[in-house]
Specification:
By secondary structure, the protein is an alpha+beta fold. It has one domain: SH3 type barrels, CATH 2.30.30. Helices cover 30% and strands 40% of the residues. It has a five-stranded antiparallel sheet, with helices on one face. A hairpin with a 2-residue loop joins β1 and β2. 15% of the residues are buried.
Length: 81
């Protein structure tokens, strides 16, 4: 299974960007989105260092809410089990 993480673009330099989410910053490639209109402030899905899709802020927030729920359930299982 592949997992893409939603992040917000904070800086763009050509096909490279700095993105952040939940206090973590990463350098990512925008090469796969070179035909899209990508701007600072946009939200993108990141997979293995590449932005693979532009998404809405709402979709990014929904994804993080789901991830947070999954992580909290995993932590609860570790405590119980």
């Amino acid at each position: 299974m592949c997992l893409a993480v939603p992040m917000q673009i904070t800086h763009i330099d050509g096909f490279n960007a700095r993105c952040s989410a939940k206090g973590v910053q990463r350098e990512v490639s925008l090469f796969l989105l070179q035909d899209d209109d990508i701007q600072v402030g946009d939200h993108v899905l990141i997979h293995v260092g590449y932005a693979i899709q532009k998404i809405s802020e709402q979709d990014a927030q929904t994804a993080w809410e789901l991830f947070d729920r999954m992580f909290s359930m995993e932590e609860a299982d570790a405590v119980i089990g």
